Amino acid sequence: MNLLQLFFIISGFLLVLIWYDFLKKRRLTIFQIFVLVFAGFALIIFTVYPPSLHYFWKLFWVSRWAYVLIYLSIIFLTYMLINVLNKVEINRQTDTKIIRQMAFLEFKFRNENK
Hints:
Blueprint: H1 3-25, H2 30-48, H3 52-60, H4 65-112
Helix pairs in contact: 1-2
């Protein structure tokens, strides 16, 4: 086993943990399912048959496998960042609604008790 295969095995283990966490929370979109399944199959294929990486390199027109991993990592991290920022914005809007409702109810309660 070489260092690349060890990297793929560790990545696969992390992928299984992420998959389990998402399934436990039941918050998966179709796109996330597709990405996780594709990444899982790719990791299995690249771990079992490392020369298949050569064909994968040619698909992206790069000369080294490290470039493909870097590009895919940047794309994945950008997607995750956008996803997290979207959830923060949704939580901010929800918090604002809750605070407005609480303020309105408190105002209404104080006016009724005068």
